[in-house]
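Annex B, item 7. Sequence and structure tokens for protein A, then protein B.
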Amino acid sequence: SSSLANVVANDALTKVGHDALTKVRPKTPARVTTLTIPSSMSSPLSPTADVFQLPPHTSALPALTDLTSLFSTLSLTPPFSPHLPPPPVRQRPPHSNSGVTAVVEQEGYISLRLRHAVVLDISANQAIRLTNNLKNSSMSLSACTTQMALVHLKGRILQYGPRVEVQTEDDVSVKNAKIYPRGISFTANNMALVYLLDEAGARSTSDMFHDLYATQIVDTLFMESCQREGQAVPTCIRLLDKARYWRTEAGVDCWVIGHVFIQQTEDGLVTVERELQHGDNFVLKTSPSNGKVKFDSRFVQITASLGDESHMFLRSGDRRLHYSGQTKVFTVRNAGHSAGFDEEGELRIF
């Protein structure tokens, strides 16, 4: 059996425990072992989260004073009760930041609740979780940046070190693929074999895959990445206190929290960037209007969308994976070779 911990880079900042995910039941000839999810860790911190509002220029406008309710507390006897005109109506600016708040959670992360039901969580050690509640999608990036997870209606993706796993489910079959240094291995639950696509072409092999639908992989990765030492909450408080905000001439709201740069456009599109000291840049995007998500790093590029062009696409070096949500065609490409499953779920070598 394999362990997730064995393939994660030895980074002192954070690691996902090897028991954090559950693998699929065995396939022929692959051997699969079962991992269990650790019980939620207890925290010595106070169970009550400290709530912090963003600076005045980012918070919602104050509630309007209702003159009628103000005078209702006075003792006035008819017919001397004054005739009160309707309270003045103060319109909020069309690009108001109404409803944007920041909360420091006891687990040791900042929860930035943006417009259009998008939530960005940033841990004390700069792990990231981006959740699009309107389109049921989410992404997370570990503090060490060697691991990421994505949940979308068209599939799920997990990167750990140099390996990336993809799983999709539809009414034809459940399809799995793994991109790793040797090549791309792939299979489906209606297939008896696992196939490898490398420089020599496609052939059968033995491999095993994680069941990415068995657990909430985004939440698991983020929570395991969070720094749990006693200074996590105070660190988050300091990060939030030093947060910067501004609005561009194009109406884009911008924040900087630690080393994380956040933007939200008028239609709700959120872009999150984290740049490392040696120059690597990680970009996460999610759209509450059309359900598109994007993850971009030097190692892997991922897109997924809903609607007429629903799909999931992954690229790492010269390796590609494409899944069509419309036709159910699942294709992998490597070293000039292509293979996968057609509309009926049958193996095809191109």
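Protein B:
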Amino acid sequence: MPYDKKTRQEIENALDLELIRQQVEHEALDFQAYSAFVIDTLAKLCAPIRDEQVKELRNITDIVSLFREIFQVIDVMKLDMANFTIQQMRPYIMQHSVEYEKQRFTEFLKAQAEHGVDGLLCTKEWIRRTYDQVLNGAANNVTPSLLVVESYLELLRWPDGYGYPETLMMDKSRLLDLRDRIQLLITTASVLAITYNCVGIAIHGLQHLRETLTQGILQILEHSEEENLADVLISIGEQISKDVNEALVTHGFSPLEPPAAANMKGQIGKLSDDENVIRKLIAARLYDFIKGMILTPRALTSPVKLPSGLSAVQGEVIRCTGRFLRITGHNRAVFGEYYANIIDEIMSKRSSDSFAEPSDS
């Protein structure tokens, strides 16, 4: 409101503090008139989402309660204005942030070069390693854009022993947290896939059971981060068997036969192997979903259809994907030129090497 001089003048004229003080001293203060003016003013200034809240003020007759509610509405409107200002300024803030980070990273590379160090060594290794993996996957057309996306996806399955890309060091902790969370979701979805496949149609459609199983798996995994996954999966298998049998009996079915229960727990226990078929399938679907969101950005707030097997963890997947897109989007804006140069160098070298290879004839 600092720029709305007319409204500001109207408020100052109506709420003349000296006049109000005199009215109070002579017990002539008209609370209703002042409250009506304040409410009318709030109605003109508030965001549409606050209209109902302001409207309800007119129904309050107790003076103390009314002014308490008025101050609460004003506090909320201050937050609305702050959020609006941030939203309006966000593009400018982001642009300045990108330029600032570019400048600082250029200075970093220059300082490294003066000491004979390649400041992009780990970044080059990261992209080169991803390029080799994509080629080994029989990709027919590896474009620079696709290679950047695949490189970002590698961060979600990053081995602890590898040097982290210099261009992502500022976001390393957040990305590693996301990696761990994604792996946890893959494990959860894989356990559920095995459970429903082993138990069969008897538990399909039991939404409460699905929620119970999902939350139970997540809680065990979240509180067992330092333990060996194979040992944790044994505990999860036991809990799943217990919950499933209780649900079966509650809905008039017989509990799992011991061989069937043992088979289910055995399959769950094998999920600690990264090469497990079920785990690889669920992981591939999740990575493909995130990849699609990067290649074809769209609002995650609108209904999003997840691949089969991930519906039980949909909320978590969408939240993690949103965080990942924000980090990688900003990173690409800052370091995209470096990635383009590295990729061009890699592809040119590979083309040159292929051309130089002697033929069999």
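Comment on protein B: The longest helix spans residues 63-114.
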